[in-house]
């Protein structure tokens, strides 16, 4: 178990602020929130990690374009869009997609970035051959060559930076066991009350939005059903591995689980008043293997990455325990452009 770093943030932090909150909801929110909320600060990526992340997404985007629209990409590069060139372009797209997935799903993707360097050299050789053919559009080929040279410079820079910092993780949430998330929040309830609520696992779907149901099957064992992409569901059985009243609950999945997961939640008395610090430490393997890891990365574009979802669930738990229900702003319920607040229905 690693050390959980935490910090203090104002209660009016972005997680709670929303232009569409009604007056009644705003006052109730203030009562729930209190003057401050104890949360774990998000880790910030350095320029080296951000560059590698960018190159990973660039590879995925380019690879998908080459696979889906090979003739369009060929035309941009000044290449004749014959059937043979279309097959070659799709093969290059598969190479790009593989490199991008490797960069986005590995904790230390230095070798995958170097694979992009090798791919750039191959692309330059192919473009040189294209430029020597009078039947192709040399102007477009020259522009494509310049673009590849620019990307090659970024790839070499990124690979060298990562090689010089071998202990720096580009994707810290991903390890050999899957995705690892640590989050913390303070709830204005005693450790006894919070422990009692969480100890009844059937309460978990009340604030964990990805859960459909949790059913106790026997002492220390439960059956979980969770939402999956494309309207599907995944299921698994879990066993409680540690249970210290009012202090800690630990669990792990068992058997042939659709999603292997394990974690623990600690309940510690907060230094201020009759409150509890909840520390969640969770490790799980997304469904569909590597594709699941890429999906988890892509979800970041929509603020639905694992860490954000766990933090949102903890805020929902705070509301359930302190108010008795989850308070949603009007803008949360009504998707689309900003609009005046409406009374809740």
Question: Helices and strands in order, then pairings?
Answer:
Blueprint: E1 7-10, H1 23-33, E2 36-39, H2 47-68, H3 70-76, H4 83-105, H5 110-131, H6 138-164, E3 174-175, E4 178-187, H7 191-199, E5 211-218, E6 221-227, E7 233-244, E8 248-254, E9 261-269, E10 276-284, H8 290-298, H9 306-322, H10 330-333
Helix pairs in contact: 2-3, 2-4, 2-6, 3-4, 4-5, 5-6
What do these coordinates show?
With 345 residues, this protein is an alpha+beta fold. It folds into 2 domains: 199 residues, START domain (Alpha-D-Glucose-1,6-Bisphosphate, Chain A, domain 4); 118 residues. 44% of the residues lie in helices and 21% in strands. It has 10 helices and 10 strands. The strands form 2 sheets. It has an 8-stranded antiparallel beta sheet, covered by helices on one side. The protein has a two-stranded antiparallel sheet with strand order 1-2. Helix 2 packs antiparallel against helix 4. It is elongated. The two termini are 44 Å apart. The N terminus is likely disordered.
List keywords for this structure.
345 residues; 2 domains; eight-stranded antiparallel sheet; two-stranded antiparallel ribbon; 21% strand; disordered N terminus
> And the CATH topology of the largest domain?
Alpha-D-Glucose-1,6-Bisphosphate, Chain A, domain 4
Please indicate the percent range of residues in DSSP E strands (runs of 2 or more).
Answer: 15-25%
Mean pLDDT over the residues: 76
Structural class given helices, strands, pairing?
Answer: alpha+beta
CATH superfamily of the largest domain: START domain
CATH class of the largest domain: Alpha Beta
Query: What is the overall silhouette?
Result: elongated
**Helical amount:** 40-55%
